[in-house]
Specification:
The chain is of the alpha+beta class. It contains 3 helices and 4 strands; from the N terminus they run ααββββα. Strands 1-2-3-4 form a 4-stranded antiparallel β-sheet. The longest helix has about 70 residues. It is rod-shaped, with a radius of gyration of 37 Å. About 5% of the residues have low confidence.
């Protein structure tokens, strides 16, 4: 007679001990901590990217304002030359004469785009004594041998990294470094 095969014995089932329950709670805490850490790192990453991009945007904005300022000065220079052609080569005595004789529109941009205040470019409200640019061309004539080094207008305040925009009699605009407007004008005088 053959003996029946032995019946496999089942391992006795353990009841959940008090030590195993916290392991499940710890797993949930770890998962939540990882998710919060990833979320926090995402926010920090976005902050770091913004910190790297914002200065570049600021520089681009300042450059755009500088170009806008130079464009404003060139437009004023063209108006002055048109005035001089009609007045036997004489430049206007001041901005007011340029406006009063109709060489400048009533919404002509004579304010620096980087000026700290936001003033209206409407000439009805314009104070001819306080434009953002100082006019130096009173009494000059456009048939000057040194037109390329004769300044006729300069910014009153250096708005672009210590550089002053200067309009010359030949119509070009240059950014010239200097600690004061007077220092820039003195350097320009030495060039002549």
């Amino acid at each position: 007679m053959t003996t029946p095969p032995p019946v496999p014995q089942q391992a006795p089932q353990k009841q959940a001990s008090a030590q195993e329950v916290p392991k499940k709670k710890n797993t949930v805490v770890i998962i939540v901590s990882v998710i919060a850490g990833v979320f926090f790192m995402g926010i920090v990453g976005v902050g770091i990217l913004a910190a790297m991009i914002l200065p570049a945007l600021g520089k681009a904005r300042a450059k755009a304002r500088s170009v806008n300022c130079a464009s404003n000065m060139k437009m004023i220079g063209v108006s002055m030359l048109m005035f001089s052609y009609d007045h036997e080569g004489r430049l206007p005595n001041d901005f007011k004469e340029l406006v009063d004789k109709g060489y400048v529109d009533t919404d002509y941009p004579i304010f620096c785009p980087s000026a700290e205040y936001k003033s209206s470019a409407n000439y009805a409200e314009f104070d001819y004594i306080h434009p953002d640019y100082e006019y130096l061309g009173g009494g000059l004539y456009d048939h000057n041998d040194k037109a390329d080094i004769t300044p006729i207008m300069i910014e009153k305040i250096a708005c672009y990294k210590g550089k002053y925009q200067v309009l010359f009699l030949d119509g070009h605009v240059e950014s010239i470094e200097g600690s004061t407007k007077e220092e820039v004008l003195e350097d320009l005088e030495l060039r002549r």
